[in-house]
Each structure stands twice: as structure tokens, then as C-alpha cells.
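User: Reviewer 2 asked us to show a designed sequence for the structure in our supplementary figure. I'm pasting the C-alpha cells here. Could you produce the per-position amino acids so we can include them in the response letter?
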């Protein structure tokens, strides 16, 4: 009789199910296997099968890790936990921690509480492990006494797990910290290293959660606590060799580091504790400085961190700063692919057999189907017959290897690897082609995506390539095709490669290839001389024979070529300690600036380092070192380096230089000189507010206006592609053109230049007709030409022709302005001189106030935008229309049923289109920057915008509006102005408490505008009832379909402790069914307490009637 065995019954083993899933070739086949297996498990659960319950739970955990739903098996975890045997409890607790979380508390606390009191220490350990992973605040309150009792258990493993579980309890309920203070201090007297490291970690968590616990460990046990820490540190440092704790010849460096961190917390801001710690820190710094041991350097690094964090003596601090310069060992990690290298086939066979025997002795099996060999004919030894065999089986010979994602050829060439990498880059490109080819996405954003996602795929493994010219050419051609498509161009458009790269902000791939190769060369140089990679690459073997023809280019020769081109000494690669030193100096500067000032020259040299991470860190440090006495030499060095720095670093460097010049400018002339040079070298990276401030200063410095226009004109002739330079120069030519032509207001150090009226118009015309000029620059050129028509009457006809060329411009605003300006030049001669006279000096104080207000508004918007979006299923619209799949809908989470209409969000963003609207006074309600730019260009008109704004940033669910302003709307031709205001009247509605918990209270107050009963303005007030401040606070709300909701930015994202200050936020609600349906709302609040994320939500049902 034939028996048919069901391959998907509950009796099948876990390994059989895994093998069946791995054998699937498509996702559909995998889903079918999982669906049949889940059906069999459900049948076993309904039948009450106990024999295979543990096996079914193991299967469910594997299915859960694959991402399939397994909620139907959660109750099986409870049944396994309730079993008497340890194996069943172990699999039950493992499933509990994997399939459930702290928000699902229907499982019984009785089982866990009973296991915490079990006589078997291993079962107690299981319960503590589960409690430490998924316990909630309520469970922590209920089981805290049991865990506190277990801290005094005799078994070290139980103490260790109880201490780790206590950390979770303290994080969930900081109020319980005082219950664990004495027990934690007592654990510091233990001898077991596991208990000690857990106790130290618990003490650190207590100090972070409660100020009372920190003072308790400092004062109440004070000297005893510190004595215990010092004793632990000395005992571990002076202990004999212990193989279970030894790492690199140092006993338990992890315990060293944890104790030092706790010392830093106790000594921070406390002179008495710091004085007691100084001696042991000096001893550790002196004894743990073995530069060739990673563990010793880790302890040294933590010692320096502690020295900088406590009230250490100046001598100890200087010693810490000096000892930062120690060598840092670098460890290399390898993947699981293994390569065996030998000079003969017999040698490879012997190594392979030894490798097989070693693996099989440890329970591993060497894959015979994946094992291959390749022969490289580089050796001077003769040809050897025979094959490479593995356990009697011949290993296949290949001409090409794929090793760690790279293609290795037997002749040492890289043709196939380069082609393979280019194909990988195009694969990434095709996956994102919809975004990269979208004209609405900014070029800089596309370039950033290319640098982040596509170019790394093309250069994977390129650090090991001995590239020839043809390889570099292949990569460059592929890259330029991608970048041209990003900009919407082809080679037929005849746009220079440099212009394309400048527009997207991408450095040539050849430079990146060299950087990768040099970085890898540095890693090899820092390896010990006996390392195989050092022997095989840096030292050339002596038995390599010379082949016929031109010798093959080696990797070492390629590196030498790169070093020569970059003018780098190869010994510099060994000096890899710079970043760690800079990182520590960043912390030391807050404590002792003079100690860091001594290293100023070295830090400045690090700004020019080939490593981008070192450059950025050094630049931040230089910025902190600048003061009134050294600002000139430091700025000169930075500006000089700006000329030769690569494009990826120019943005950061330019921002820092501009900030330094604005903050420490000694006089206006020096400020102008530095800004003009920055605009000439990196004008494309200068932010708008920087050149706005420059224009404001020039308008107020009448004695320097002539010098400024002449300097800018000369810079424009030399660097006409720097966008910010072009804008500032064009504005100055329009305002002070007669000073340029007549050499007015000459300074003693100046030499006169010869510029005619026609030359000035030529400069503006060239800027207007530049192919790369954006809409903003062209608009400024039109304004400048209009003003020059008044200042240079002989050029009026020519200017009229230039302006008339833009009457057919596809940009509506430029077309409209061209028509208006042509009319002024041709028909309104009588008013032209008064209309286009020089602008009065701009109010510098008013500009600074507006600039600060705009910056604060942008910061508030950024904090709201960083919060999770409230959506109901619509696509998430990013700036310039880039769409991506939406996150989990809040409306679904809050269970609003069918009332799931999306509520749009509108937030101000900074983009070229918004800047043009501000420049020419178009769009909706002008922002603060609108007034500034309208003042700069003496334009006040605000024509009606036809169609939607050109740039919109929306997040479904919340509408964010800028602070209300009431700018005057001035027509350019008739000078009329008007302003409007809306009445505001408070309605008599009582204030309600919308939400209250142990941590947070929310109150709502209401007001309505007359004549609009369906609209309500809600002023929400958030009060922190806890003793710890709430940070990163985000408030979200969801309403039914018939209600529209708009949220303004909150006044702050931090709620002070104990309700000292309340945070407010305004909500605008429109009830489209006013009088028929009442107001309804669900809310959710997310915040952090001591760095830990918290989430609360609720429903508001007590709104006053009439809303």
C-alpha cells in the first residue's frame, strides 16, 4: 500500500520548510509555500496538537522574519511559556520576544511573575531576558519589586540579567530609579566581571534618568562609590592573564571603558569627584598607551574623553591633548568568500585539502560546486601539468573569477570588471530614471542622488584597479551620458562638460577614482609589514618574469602616478590618527581654548587633507578657533585653499568662510575684499542671504560704492560663470553705473580703469544671454538695463532692443516685465528719471531683523517637516514634485473609518522659483524675504499670479503657513498702494482639557471670526507634567472627511519640566457640515524623554457645541 506524506503538515521539520522556501525561484512560489505552511500550523493549533507545538513556533518565527503575518500564533507563545519544561519555555519566550511587543499586553503577567520566582536559575534568566526586551511601563511597575529582589541573588548570572532588566525598567519608568539606587551601588562590590559591567551600566542609566540618583552616587555614598570604581579599574588593570577576559594582552577592556564613562558622568561639574578621579586617570593614560593594540587605544581614547568631560587639572588636560597623537591601529574586515593563493597546482591542492579537513572538523562543509580555480601565468616557474582536486573531485578551471563582487581575470586586466561596474551603474540609473529625468527636480538634488546611489555602484572595487586611459574614458563617457540626461541635454546641444558638472555639483569620476585608490593605499600602508596584503602589493615579488611587449601596468605604478599628480608623500598615509585627534580637540576647545590654539597650524593643514572626513572636521575646528586676533591670516589661508579645493568640499568651505567674514569683519573694506574674492572663486555655492547682506552693506557704504563697482566689474570679466557674483555685479552696475564709467570715489590704492557706457551695457547683455543664467539672474539683468537707460541716455535705443528680445520669453514674468520696461523706455520719458533714480540706503538694522525672523521661521518649518506626516493614502509630494510611496497612514492608525479625506500641507521652501517670486513680487502672500529683495531692486509691484505657484512642498495632513505679514502692494507704473486687514473677534467658548496623562496635559481654547461660523481657530496649549523635559515634541491630528484641518508651527519643540512654561500651537478647523455634525478629532503626540521615544494618542469628544 502506498502512503502519501503531506510535505506541509505540522510534523515537518523546520529545516525542511527552510529548504522548500529557499528552493523557490520566484516570490509567488515562496508565498505559496508560506501560505500552505501557515495553513498547516493553523490546523495544528485548532486541533490542540501539543507534540509539535514547539516546532510550529520555530516555523512561525522564521516566517515572521521573512515578513509574513503570524498573529494567529501569538497565543501559542503563552502556552509554551506555561509549560513546565525548560526547552518549551525557551522557545516560548523566544517567540514572545519576536512576535509580540510591549503594546500587546493581553499575555498574562502571572506566568512571568511565576517564572521570576522559579527555583531553576535558567528559567529565571529566561523571564528576565524577556522582561528586559519587551516590558511596558505598566509591567515595569508591577514587576519592579521582583527584579529588585533578584539583584541580591547569589547566582552571578541572575544578578547580571536582573541588572540589565533594571535598565529597561528605569528607561520605561524613570520614577522607579530611586528603588534601584542602593542595589546598584552594592553591585559595584562584586568580583564577577559580567555583574560589574551590568552594574556600571545600571548606574549610568540611573544618573541619566534621575538627578537624585546622580547626587546619591556622588554624595550619599560619594567616596565609597568612587572608591569602588577606582578599585575596579586598578584590579582589572593590574590583574594577571585571564584567557576568558583577555583581548590583545589587556584584561577586559570593555569593563575599563564602562567604568571610565561612569566616572565621567559622576565627575562632570563636580570638583570634588573630579579631584578624586584625576590620579587614576593619569595612571591609566600612562599605562594603556600601546599604539599597536586596538584595545589599549580604545581605553586611551576613553580616558581622554573623561579628562575633557570632568573638572580635570590643566596639566592632566594638556597630557590628554598630547596623548591624542598616539597611533591608531586599523583592523580590516573580510567577507565570507575565501581565496587561496599558491605558486603551483600541487600547493593549491594541498591548501584546499587542508582547508576542507579543518572545516569539516568544525562541523562545516566546503561547497564543491562553488569552488573554482584560476591560473595566472605571472610566476617564473615552469608549466606544471595536472589538475586541482578537492577530495578526489577535479575543481573546474576558470579564466575569470567573480570575487567579492569584482571580476578577476587571469591576465590581471580589468576590462571585464570595468564593464561590469558600468552595467551596475546603469542598472541603478534605470531604477531611478523617473526621478532623475523629471525636469521639476532641482539639478543639485539629482546630482546628490547620483553621488550617493549611482557612482558608488560604478566605483565598487575601483580602489584596486590599475586603470589605463581607456578604462577612465569608458567611465567618463558613461558618467557624462547620465549627467547630460539629468540636465535634459544631449551632445547635440553642445553644452560643455564642465558646465554640466557645475550645474549638478558632481566632480569628475577620474578624481574620485584616484581618491579611492589613494585611500586604499593608505589602508595598506598602515597594515603591519608582515601582513599578506602588504607583502603582495607593496613589495614586488622577485620571481616575476618579464613578458613580451610592453609591461603590464601594475596597481603600484598607478598609485605612484596618483601620488605624483596630487603631490602627496606616501608616508602621509601612515598618519591616520588625525581624525581622532581632531575629534578630541573639538571637545577640548570648549574647556581650554588656549591648549588647542597651539595646534592651529596643524589643524589648518588638515583642512587641505586628501581625506574628506578629516577636511570637514578640521574646518569645523578652524571655525571655532577664529577670533579677532587671528581672523585675517586664517581667512586668507581658507580663501587661498578655496581656489584649489574640489567641488564636493567647496560648499562647506564657502559657508564657513562667509560666516567667519560676517562675524569677525574688522572693517568694511576688508569685508568687501573677502566677499568679492569668495564670489569670484565659488559664487555658485554662496547662499542667497550672504549676497543679500553684501548688497545692504554696499548701499550704506557710500564711500566704498565706487570701489565696489569697479572690483565687481573686473571680477565679472574674469569669472562670468559664478551665479552669485553675476547677480551682485549686475545689481551694482544698474545702481552705480556712472561711478564705473567716470571712476568716481577712487581710493588711494586703486588704479583707474577705462570702461565706457557701451562696455557696461555689454556686461549686462552677456549676463542676460548666458545659457546657464537662471530666471532670477535674467530678471535682475532686465531691471539693471532699465536703470542704465536712464543713466546712459545714448544707449537707450540699444537697451530697448535688448529688452524687447524678451517680449516673447516663455517665462510669463520675464515676458511681462520686458513689455513694461519697453513701455517705460519708449513712452514715459518724463517720469523715467525720477522712477529709476538711485535707491536710498537700505535700513541695515531692519534687514537684520527680517533676516533673523526668516531664519527662525525656516527652523520652525524644518522641525515640523521632520515629523511623521499625517496622510490618508495620497502620494507624498516632495519639493518640485518628486513623489514617493506614502508612509503608514495616520488616519488608518487612528481608525477614522470612511472619513479619510486627505488634508494638504503647504510649507514655505527655498527654491529658485520662490526666489524669483520674491524678486519680482509675484505669488501669494509675500514672505519676509520678499520685502528685502523688493527693496534691493526698487520693485514693489505684485501682479496677480496666473496658475499655481511654481514650487510647492506639501505633506498630506498638516498645513503649515509662514508668519503673517502685511506688505504693501505697489504698482510699478502708477505707484498706487493698498493694504488690507481682516477683523478678528474672540467667540465665547469655554476652554477644555482635550487630553491629559501622567506626563502631558493639552488644553484647547476657541475663537471664531464674524460671518464664518464654519471656521474655528483652536489655540492648543501643551504642558509637561513630568519632572523631566520632553524633547522633539510633535503634535498631530486627524479629522473626518467633512472637516478641513490646518496646523501652524508650534512655538517650541521642547516642553520644560514640571509645567514651568507651556508650548502653544494654532489649529484652523473648517466644519463643512456645521450645524449638522459636531467636531471630531483624534490626536497623537510623539516626544522623547531622556533620548527615548514616547508615543501617546487619544480621541477628543468634549468639544463645545456650536463648533
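Assistant: Here is a per-position design you can include in the supplement:
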Amino acid at each position: 500500500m502506498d502512503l502519501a506524506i503531506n510535505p506541509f503538515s505540522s510534523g515537518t521539520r523546520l529545516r525542511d520548510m527552510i529548504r522548500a522556501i529557499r528552493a523557490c525561484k520566484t516570490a509567488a512560489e515562496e508565498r505559496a509555500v508560506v501560505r500552505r505552511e501557515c495553513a498547516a500550523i493553523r490546523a495544528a493549533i485548532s486541533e490542540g496538537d501539543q507534540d509539535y507545538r514547539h516546532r510550529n513556533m520555530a516555523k512561525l518565527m522564521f516566517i515572521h522574519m521573512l515578513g509574513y503575518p503570524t498573529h494567529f500564533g501569538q497565543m501559542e507563545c503563552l502556552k509554551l511559556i506555561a509549560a513546565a519544561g525548560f526547552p518549551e519555555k525557551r522557545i516560548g519566550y523566544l517567540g514572545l520576544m519576536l512576535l509580540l511587543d510591549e503594546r500587546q499586553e493581553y499575555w498574562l503577567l502571572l506566568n512571568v511573575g511565576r517564572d521570576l520566582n522559579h527555583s531553576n536559575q535558567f528559567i529565571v534568566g529566561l523571564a528576565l531576558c524577556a522582561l528586559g526586551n519587551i516590558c511596558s511601563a505598566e509591567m515595569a511597575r508591577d514587576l519592579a519589586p521582583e527584579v529588585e529582589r533578584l539583584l541580591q541573588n547569589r547566582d552571578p548570572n541572575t544578578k547580571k540579567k536582573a541588572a540589565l532588566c533594571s535598565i529597561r525598567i528605569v528607561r520605561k519608568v524613570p520614577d522607579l530609579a530611586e528603588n534601584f539606587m542602593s542595589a546598584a551601588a552594592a553591585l559595584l562590590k562584586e568580583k564577577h566581571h559580567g555583574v560589574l559591567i551590568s552594574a556600571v551600566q545600571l548606574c549610568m542609566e540611573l544618573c541619566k534618568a534621575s538627578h537624585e540618583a546622580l547626587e546619591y552616587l556622588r554624595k550619599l555614598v560619594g567616596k565609597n562609590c568612587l572608591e569602588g570604581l577606582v578599585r575596579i579599574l586598578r584590579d582589572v588593570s593590574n590583574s594577571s592573564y585571564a584567557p576568558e577576559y583577555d583581548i590583545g594582552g589587556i584584561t577586559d577592556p570593555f569593563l575599563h571603558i564602562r567604568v571610565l564613562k561612569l566616572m565621567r558622568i559622576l565627575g562632570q561639574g563636580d570638583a570634588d569627584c573630579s579631584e578624586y578621579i584625576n590620579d587614576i586617570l593619569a595612571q591609566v593614560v600612562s599605562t594603556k598607551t600601546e599604539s599597536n593594540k586596538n584595545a589599549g587605544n580604545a581605553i586611551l581614547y576613553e580616558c581622554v574623553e573623561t579628562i575633557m568631560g570632568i573638572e580635570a587639572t590643566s596639566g592632566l588636560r594638556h597630557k590628554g591633548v598630547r596623548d591624542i597623537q598616539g597611533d591608531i591601529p586599523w583592523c580590516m574586515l573580510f567577507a565570507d568568500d575565501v581565496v587561496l593563493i599558491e605558486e603551483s597546482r600541487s600547493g593549491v591542492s594541498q591548501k584546499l585539502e587542508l582547508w576542507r579537513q579543518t572545516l569539516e572538523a568544525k562541523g562545516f562543509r566546503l561547497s564543491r560546486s562553488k569552488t573554482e580555480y584560476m591560473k595566472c601565468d605571472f610566476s617564473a616557474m615552469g608549466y606544471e601539468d595536472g589538475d586541482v582536486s578537492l577530495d578526489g573531485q577535479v575543481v573546474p578551471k576558470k579564466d575569470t573569477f567573480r570575487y567579492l563582487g569584482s571580476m578577476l581575470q587571469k591576465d590581471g586586466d580589468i576590462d571585464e570588471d570595468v564593464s561590469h561596474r558600468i552595467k551596475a551603474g546603469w542598472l541603478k540609473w534605470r531604477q531611478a530614471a523617473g526621478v532623475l529625468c523629471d525636469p521639476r527636480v532641482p539639478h543639485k538634488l539629482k546630482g546628490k542622488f547620483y553621488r550617493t546611489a549611482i557612482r558608488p555602484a560604478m566605483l565598487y572595487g575601483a580602489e584596486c584597479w590599475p586603470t589605463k586611459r581607456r578604462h577612465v574614458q569608458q567611465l567618463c563617457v558613461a558618467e557624462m551620458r547620465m549627467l547630460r540626461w539629468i540636465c535634459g541635454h544631449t551632445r547635440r546641444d553642445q553644452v560643455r562638460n564642465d558646465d554640466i558638472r557645475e550645474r549638478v555639483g558632481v566632480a569628475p569620476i577620474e578624481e574620485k577614482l584616484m581618491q579611492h585608490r589613494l585611500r586604499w593605499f593608505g589602508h595598506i600602508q598602515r597594515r603591519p609589514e608582515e601582513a599578506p596584503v602588504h607583502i603582495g602589493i607593496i613589495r614586488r615579488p622577485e620571481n616575476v618574469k618579464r613578458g613580451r611587449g610592453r609591461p603590464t601596468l601594475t596597481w603600484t605604478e598607478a598609485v605612484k602616478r596618483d601620488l605624483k599628480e596630487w603631490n602627496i608623500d606616501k608616508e602621509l598615509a601612515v598618519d591616520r590618527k588625525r581624525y581622532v585627534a581632531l575629534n578630541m580637540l573639538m571637545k577640548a576647545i570648549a574647556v581650554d581654548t588656549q591648549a588647542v590654539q597651539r595646534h592651529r597650524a596643524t589643524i589648518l593643514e588638515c583642512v587641505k587633507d586628501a581625506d574628506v572626513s578629516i577636511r570637514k572636521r578640521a574646518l569645523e575646528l578652524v571655525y571655532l578657533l577664529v577670533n579677532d586676533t587671528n581672523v585675517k591670516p586664517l581667512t586668507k589661508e581658507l580663501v587661498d585653499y578655496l581656489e584649489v579645493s574640489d567641488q564636493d568640499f567647496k560648499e562647506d568651505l564657502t559657508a564657513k568662510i562667509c560666516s567667519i567674514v560676517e562675524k569677525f569683519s574688522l572693517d568694511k573694506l576688508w569685508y568687501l575684499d573677502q566677499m568679492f574674492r569668495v564670489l569670484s572663486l565659488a559664487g555658485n555655492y554662496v547662499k542667497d542671504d550672504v549676497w543679500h547682506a553684501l548688497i545692504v552693506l554696499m548701499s550704506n557704504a557710500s564711500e566704498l560704492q565706487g570701489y565696489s563697482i569697479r572690483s565687481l566689474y573686473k571680477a565679472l570679466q574674469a569669472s562670468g560663470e559664478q551665479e552669485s557674483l553675476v547677480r551682485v555685479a549686475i545689481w551694482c552696475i544698474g545702481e552705480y553705473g556712472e561711478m564705473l564709467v567716470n571712476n568716481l570715489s577712487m581710493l588711494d590704492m586703486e588704479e583707474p580703469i577705462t570702461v565706457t557706457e557701451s562696455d557696461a551695457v555689454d556686461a549686462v547683455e552677456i549676463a542676460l544671454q548666458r545659457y546657464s543664467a537662471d530666471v532670477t539672474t535674467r530678471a535682475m539683468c532686465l531691471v539693471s538695463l532699465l536703470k542704465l537707460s536712464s543713466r546712459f541716455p545714448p544707449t537707450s535705443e540699444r537697451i530697448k532692443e535688448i529688452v524687447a528680445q524678451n517680449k516673447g520669453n516663455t517665462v510669463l514674468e520675464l515676458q511681462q516685465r520686458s513689455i513694461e520696461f519697453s513701455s517705460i523706455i519708449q513712452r514715459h520719458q518724463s517720469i523715467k528719471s525720477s522712477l529709476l533714480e538711485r535707491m536710498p540706503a537700505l535700513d541695515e538694522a531692519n534687514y537684520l531683523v527680517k533676516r533673523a525672523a526668516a531664519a527662525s521661521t525656516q527652523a520652525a518649518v524644518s522641525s515640523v517637516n521632520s515629523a511623521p506626516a499625517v496622510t490618508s493614502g495620497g502620494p507624498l509630494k516632495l519639493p518640485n514634485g518628486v513623489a514617493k510611496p506614502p508612509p503608514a497612514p495616520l488616519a488608518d492608525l487612528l481608525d477614522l473609518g470612511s472619513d479619510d479625506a486627505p488634508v494638504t500641507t503647504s510649507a514655505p521652501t527655498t527654491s529658485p522659483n520662490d526666489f524669483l517670486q520674491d524678486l519680482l513680487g509675484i505669488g501669494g502672500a509675500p514672505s519676509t524675504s520678499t520685502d528685502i529683495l523688493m527693496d534691493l531692486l526698487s520693485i514693489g509691484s505684485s501682479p496677480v499670479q496666473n496658475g499655481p505657484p511654481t514650487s510647492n512642498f506639501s505633506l498630506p495632513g498638516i498645513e503649515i503657513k509662514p508668519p503673517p505679514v502685511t506688505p504693501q502692494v505697489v504698482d510699478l507704473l502708477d505707484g498706487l498702494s493698498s493694504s488690507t486687514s481682516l477683523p478678528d473677534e474672540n467667540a465665547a467658548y469655554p476652554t477644555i482639557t482635550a487630553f491629559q496623562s501622567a506626563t502631558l496635559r493639552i488644553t484647547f481654547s476657541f475663537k471664531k471670526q464674524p460671518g464664518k461660523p464654519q471656521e474655528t481657530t483652536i489655540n492648543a496649549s501643551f504642558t509637561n507634567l513630568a519632572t523631566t523635559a520632553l524633547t522633539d515634541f510633535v503634535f498631530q491630528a486627524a479629522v473626518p472627511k467633512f472637516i478641513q484641518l490646518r496646523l501652524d508651527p508650534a512655538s517650541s519643540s521642547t516642553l520644560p519640566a514640571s509645567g514651568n512654561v507651556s508650548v502653544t500651537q494654532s489649529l484652523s478647523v473648517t466644519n463643512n457640515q456645521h450645524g449638522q455634525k459636531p467636531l471630531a478629532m483624534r490626536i497623537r503626540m510623539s516626544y522623547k524623554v531622556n533620548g527615548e521615544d514616547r508615543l501617546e494618542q487619544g480621541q477628543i469628544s468634549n468639544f463645545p457645541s456650536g463648533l
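For the response letter, you might also mention the following. The first strand starts at residue 246 and ends at 247. The longest helix spans residues 844-865.
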